[in-house]
Amino acid sequence: MNGFLVVIPARLSSSRLPEKPLADIGGKPMVVRVAERARLSAANRVVVATDHPRIVAACEQYGVEVVLTRADHPSGTDRLAEVASLLALADDTVVVNVQGDEPLIEPALIDRLAALLQESRAPMATLAHDIHSAADMFNPNVVKVALDKQGHALYFSRAPIPYARDAFATSKESLPAGLPVYRHIGMYAYRASLLHTYSQLAPAPLEQFEALEQLRMLWHGHAIAVECVAEAPAAGVDTPEDLERVRAVVAGYTA
Question: pTM of the full predicted structure?
């Protein structure tokens, strides 16, 4: 595998968990824990991109490379685009976006995503896994993705896609056998050339209605390669309950 860069966007504010990137997990800020997991991948560089000097200071304390970006970015991709500019990344650089609230991220998953993009002609790649329950299929918080025969995304939606018309007319309690239903995993890899032009892509109506920023790429004609993995990654941290769960896991690592 060729080298790649991991960028970890980290905003200080969070509606459900204030100052989430700085939350203590086993004596270290969460964003530092995420960076340490990313360093276990094959990435040749791991950079935190943040909007706040306190996160800069926390990263520097633990020797994590960090860049201070603008505070007005509406999405993580916008923040990555600024990082690509600040670091003057070559167009062919592969950039993997690892969320700053995933301190249990598997390094092998990062490597797999980077390899997918390197092996593809698409400018962007992401991951998915099978959905097995109707409850997940009809849950708008579970983002679904439909694929073409090349493994490229046709569409992402909070709605149940693809919709089994005849089967669901009878019952929505279970999924019909063979229905290709995939849950999107919110990790992305980009070629820096796409990030360099991202600011020129106007937001798409579909993106705004679905509240899914990846639809902007499809709207503007950019292919997104998708690979299906066997299992979902460990859940990230969104709530105080999530934080306690992750603390318990990390305590088991360090015991």
Answer: 0.91
